[in-house]
Amino acid sequence: MSRDPRYDILFEPVAIGPVTARNRFYQVPHCNGMGHAMPNSVAAMRGMKAEGGWAVVATEECDIHASSDVLPYAEARLWDEGDQQRLALMADRVHEHGALAAIELTHSGHNVSNRYSRLPVLGVSDAGVNSFDPVQACAMTKRDIADVRRWHRQAAIRARDAGFDIVYVYAGHDLTLPMHFISRRHNRRSDEYGGSLENRVRLTRELLEDTKDAVGDRCGIAIRFAVDELLGDAGIASGAEGREVVEMLAEMPDLWDVNVSDWANDSVTARFGEEGAQESYVAFVKQVTSKPVVGVGRFTSADAMVSQVKRGILDMIGAARPSIADPFLPRKIEEGRIEDIRECIGCNICVSGDWTQSPIRCTQNPTMGEEWRRGWHPEIISPRGSSKKVLVVGAGPAGLEAAMSLGQRGYEVALADSGDGGGRAVREATLPGLASYKRVSDYRLAQIARSTHISFYPGSEMDGPSIRDFGADQVLIATGSYWRTDGLGRATFAPVPGIEDHPQCLTPDDIVAGTLPAHGPVLVYDDDHYYLGGVIAQLLADRGLSVTLATPGPEVSCWTQNTMEQHRIEQALLERDVKLVPKHTMARVDANTATLTCNSTGRELQCEAAALVMVTLRAPVNDLYFALAGQQQEHLDDLPFGILRIGDCMAPATIAAAVYDGHRAARELDNLPDPDTVPFKRERALIDGP
Ligand code: ADP
Ligand code: SF4
Fold first, then answer.
1. Ligand 1 centre from 478 Cα, in Å?
2. Does 441 contact ligand 2 (Cβ within 6 A)?
3. What is the CATH number of the domain that holds 630?
4. 643 and 514 together in one domain
5. Are residue 536 and residue 602 in the same domain, yes or no?
6. Residue 591 has what pLDDT?
7. How does DSSP assign 33-45, residue by residue?
8. Which domain, by its residues, includes 649?
9. Would you call 31 a catalytic residue per the annotation?
10. Residue 324 Cβ contacting ligand 2 at under 6 Å
């Protein structure tokens, strides 16, 4: 297939100072939870983007000095030559596939606590650090400013020598020293670096000049700048100082990478922001500068990308998440394979890798972060082994991914589901803000429909005899899970006394099936802590019910801190007058009253609850597996087929985890790793010894 001529414009080269990008696809900096700690993993992951057709592939933020130490987060680091060698791995991988490598040089100012280096924290002014750490930053002297400029310059030279083609000055996300200087909120200086905007921009201007002078002959110089902080008059705004900054520096860099701040606004989830949500803020930039402009907007639609370029909003299509969900997005557009694009669902599971200090993962792309340690390629999978016929029971995220990947390996796959397929991805997509979750099943069902190796049987309830009769060589059980009604959860270690007699006790399974409480008041009890408790409380409040959300967690939907949604969820609930009761655990239920105990004092709180919605734990639907394998798996060796349980039917978790489990099972069929060895490569710390 060849590409649709409508998309030709996306494949035009773009000059960025002395270097040229082969097309308009630009992987902007994004964190990955691996950073300097896992240089091989990062190099392989970034190299995959280059192979997939991105013209520019950037690092995440790259700290230039030990006084900018972001521990516990693992970002890129360029403190010395040892770091330079490790970063060169990435530049090399990116170059192997004809792309440009960009590096986002960063000094974090008072955004860090220097937990590792234990150096004093340098800030634009005396200030608290950007965390609850009991540490303050000291206002930088002119000598300190000169130090930072020198470190930045040295880092730029090392970056060039490591092979990078584009070097950034990073003034974005409220995370970096240049932006702290620009910001009236942070900058309380009275010298020539404070006061007027001209003064506050001085450091950024100097860093641009220094970088241009040091490496500008060989490297394109980029600036990343947040044109709007979405704080109104209190912050930088695109209609005011945001625009003025771009006007002041307009022609200095070779490329403008613009976005909104902070990171939660920049990487807003699909639940709270549409594709292209930043357009109204960044649209002015191209009117102010003649230099190429890159911006982001969770773009997965080629038409939307073309529209950005044709309407003069952006010159290059920036992407972090769409490039994570599908590293081969540009190649697929180029080859006319639009339907093969794995579209980002905007869930921010990728972001959670950074916040939980774990290697990046993605709901849509199970190979993300596994390129080096497991050798997984998003588009290539090994041919089948000795088995031929595989039966997958359950077409939720785990079963769909397993069936699709096994078909790609060349197995003859039958996929049976008692319903229409899609599992929880389809069910949850009916809830407010979660429509994009359906992309998980849409993509896989479409791939399966086109595969000559896979037969999908919806409306097929399987049981032990029908599975035995099927005559498969291998059976994968992916029958999912259901929500418990008894209250057993993370904080409530046993069923809640009295709950079985409550007249209206529902679970998320009821809500997604359309069974809502007949009347309130409703108590949503959330001992799950991810998104569902909050979403359901919101839905019920929107239906006019009086809703209380109680949780043993410190705040509602507390795990969504890791997807940068918690503050928005809490705001949405408070705006709907949902009563929030954090740090309370359900003790018992008597008729229409639930008794909650305060986690701190043990004091009891009575809560009227004509209806209960229990969002606690899920129970695996594993009876089919155990009927065949035996309760203690004692029949496994006697069955005429291999059998495996995957996804939620093994242990309920996120959709991302179910997809990953299905993918791993598909890769490992006929190819099981030795259970006594670590099934992936590791990046070990150096040891100092003979
Ligand atoms: P996961 O997240 O692990 O993929 P889901 O709960 O999303 O789990 O999906 C499980 C799927 O399995 C559902 O679509 C359900 O209809 C299907 N299923 C459950 N039991 C059976 C069965 N006995 N036969 C066929 N399909 C089943
Ligand atoms: Fe998109 Fe979710 Fe994947 Fe992140 S984890 S790239 S938001 S699908």
1. 6
2. no
3. 3.40.50.720
4. no
5. yes
6. 87
7. S-GGG-HHHHHHH
8. 389-480+621-668
9. yes
10. yes
